[in-house]
Design goal:
Elements (H helix, E strand, L loop, with lengths): L18 H12 L2 E2 L11 H12 L12 H15 L9 E5 H13 L5 E6 L3 H9 L3 E6 L9 H7 L4 E7 L11 H14 L2 E5 L25 E6 L11 E5 L2 H11 L10 H9 L3 H25 L2 E3 L6 E5 L9 H12 L1 E2 L1 E2 L13 E5 L4 H11 L20
Parallel strand pairs: 1-11, 3-4, 3-5, 5-6, 6-7
Antiparallel strand pairs: 2-8, 7-8, 9-10, 10-13, 12-13
Helix pairs in contact: 1-11, 2-9, 3-9, 4-5, 4-8, 10-12
Bound molecules: 4'-deoxy-4'-aminopyridoxal-5'-phosphate and glutamine.
The site of 4'-deoxy-4'-aminopyridoxal-5'-phosphate has 14 residues, from helix 4.
């Protein structure tokens, strides 16, 4: 049970410190290889970095327009057209945000009444539940279950009630690496039409798909553009997670609604980074293919290492992340204890996936590792993880297998 935090409003009780902060701090303190938080350890394309330096040097350091600088809004619109055939008016249908995180919060705050329900795919990215709570709304979970982590369409239908206001759909999905397929997307669209629901899509991993799988935005399905708020971000695609440049694309009335909330969260941000992201979005197709191919090779390396270490590995089709079941190595299935002990046992940090579940018990035995790291860092992590099962140096103390409830 999470402790009550003094002074904190009741709607935020229970959220505590984010697991990313806790685990990154643990990695720094112990010197462990950090495969926790999802950030790359290499910089993005030089053209994009140079454009940011140039923007700072040329004085683009004051408040940008609230909706974002015109060249970025135009580049976002071109990107949606080029990759998906989706047309958005850069002046009225595009909004630049402080990362996808702000876009998600602003969408929840703008579109939900207190007491409304938001249907989310569980496990959820960590900010979803907090953003929904800040809007006074309530999450309703549709669980993606191992080993395949596919969408259970019947469960999705059952989750929709007369109080449902939004379907908040993350694909490609963090942390499972699931990319919703044609039939799953069609089922979401059918439900949205039937029940007249708005859909918010989180597509931050849109370019990071593997094995020939392609991300298809829900907004491209017949009739869906009009009811969908598309959210994405530059962080993952251009390896610039610290820049926090994200965006929203939607019909003008929806963008206006989300902008109303956004302007009182940050108003605007990231002035010199916005023109740099515009340069990134216009990079040739090879760049986007290259990032995905690089990550696919890293996925293979880490998945093989985790399997060799004895975990049950759920191979992802996208994103930065792979989820494992720890029970072959730790029969009590306590993922939180496992992650807190892992730096000491073998010098690696990972994320206990249970924090992404409405009821942590549903994901207690699952742990997420990030492969968005340099190959040599992954190789070192794999070597360290290989020591876990063997009982050699760094192996588990006997009590670690104690099977405590
Ligand atoms: N959605 C998902 C699914 C994510 O994994 C993340 C973070 N990586 C975000 C949103 C937040 O993106 P940003 O860093 O642009 O705020
Ligand atoms: N999205 C990143 C992840 O899932 C972390 C973002 C954050 O630290 N808030 O690891």
């Amino acid at each position: 049970m999470v402790e009550r935090v003094p002074h904190l409003a009741s709607r935020l009780q229970g959220f505590g410190t984010t697991i990313f902060a806790e685990m990154t701090e643990l990695a720094a303190r112990t010197g462990a290889v950090n495969l926790g938080q999802g950030f790359p350890d290499e910089d993005g394309p030089p053209e994009v970095l140079d454009a940011a330096v140039e923007a700072i040097r040329s004085g683009r350091n004051q408040y940008p327009p609230g909706r974002g600088v015109p060249e970025l809004r135009a580049a976002i619109a071109r990107h949606q057209q080029r990759f998906y055939g989706l047309a958005y008016d850069p002046d009225t249908e595009v909004l630049v945000t402080a990362g996808a995180t702000e876009a998600i919060a602003a969408a929840c705050l703008a579109l939900c009444e207190p007491g409304d329900e938001v249907v989310v795919l569980e496990p959820t990215y960590d900010s979803y539940q907090a953003s929904i709570a800040m809007a006074g709304a309530r999450p309703v979970f549709v669980t993606l279950r191992p080993p395949d982590h596919r969408l259970d369409v019947d469960a999705l239908r059952a989750a929709v009630t007369p109080r449902t206001r939004l379907l908040l759909v993350n694909t490609p999905h963090n942390p499972t690496g699931t990319v919703l397929d044609e039939a799953e997307l069609a089922a979401v669209a059918e439900l949205a039409h039937e029940r007249d629901l708005l859909v918010v899509t989180d597509e931050v991993y849109e370019h990071l798909t593997f094995d020939g799988r392609r991300h298809v935005p829900l907004a491209t399905l017949p009739g869906m553009r009009d009811r969908t708020v598309v959210i994405s971000s530059a962080g993952k695609t251009f390896r610039t997670t610290g820049w926090k440049v994200g965006w929203v694309c939607a019909p003008a009335p929806l963008v206006t609604a989300v902008t109303t909330a956004k302007q009182f969260l940050t108003y605007a941000g990231g002035a010199p980074f916005q023109p740099a992201v515009a340069v990134g979005l216009d990079l040739p197709d090879d760049y986007f293919r290259g990032v995905a191919a690089d990550l696919a090779a890293k996925r293979d390396l880490l998945c093989a290492g985790l399997a060799a270490a004895g975990f049950e590995v759920f191979r992802p089709s996208a994103t930065y992340f792979v989820t494992v079941d720890i029970r072959p190595l730790r029969p009590d299935g306590d993922g939180m204890a496992f992650c807190r002990e892992l730096p000491e046992r073998c010098g690696v940090v990972a994320i206990p996936t249970q924090v992404f579940y409405g009821d942590p018990a549903r994901g207690r035995h699952l742990v997420r590792f990030s492969f968005a790291r340099r190959t040599e860092v992954l190789a070192e992590a794999v070597a360290r993880l290989g020591q876990l099962g063997g009982g050699g140096p760094g192996g588990p103390p006997p009590e670690a297998h104690g099977g405590a409830a």
